[in-house]
Amino acid sequence: xxxRHLLAVAVLGCTxxxxxxxxxxxxxxxxxxxxxxxxxxxxxxxxCTGGDLCSSSVDTNVLGDDLTFVSGGVxxxxxxxxxxxxxxxxxxxxxxxxxxxxxxxxxGVYHHWKDTADDNITSFESLVLNFxxxxxxxxxxxxxxGHSAGGWVPGATFLLNGVNMALPAGSGSISPGFLASGTTxxxxxxxxxxxxxxxxxxxxxxxxxxxTWALMALGLGLLGVARRRKA
Length: 231
Description:
Blueprint: H1 2-18, E1 23-25, E2 30-33, E3 36-39, E4 46-48, E5 52-54, E6 66-71, E7 74-82, E8 85-92, E9 106-110, E10 125-143, E11 157-160, E12 163-166, E13 173-174, E14 181-189, E15 198-206, H2 210-230
């Protein structure tokens, strides 16, 4: 009976490992009408520049802090930098947001006071995402200055954790060509042919905790014992 009980617990651990929930952070999903925001909203932030949400009061030249988002039990803090100086993060609204037509903006960086054009990620700017646990990136959504999946210069690029990546003209979405996992990810202006962009979304899967891996190992071991007993 004891072996059966342990086997059941271990199998449950293996099931939870295989069923890690996917968390979608749809930053482009922000509309503003009649003084009210709707869509995928941060848990903090202040109104700025006519309907956007910012990490600080950029309208009064306060540049700093972060925006916090939660999806599927995973929390992420978005922070903006100009060179190495922390500035403000903005979630830019788009009232014509339409994911099917790839219309929307997303997260950008503000470092210029009273410059509403400075709301995406451009020269010397970077956006850093800090997750509350280790995750694997499944997909990244990106948008151009025109709030769409087009408009970049031919061959346009950006930097993901310092790695040159192509901006996805037409599709608006990429899956990293390498195993992008960890807790901190940087999206910066740069690469071979740098162009400005918004981070419109990110889809991640949490990395299982060590205890879950231990349960999986236990389950595999007990399954082996059970099979030998039957033999």
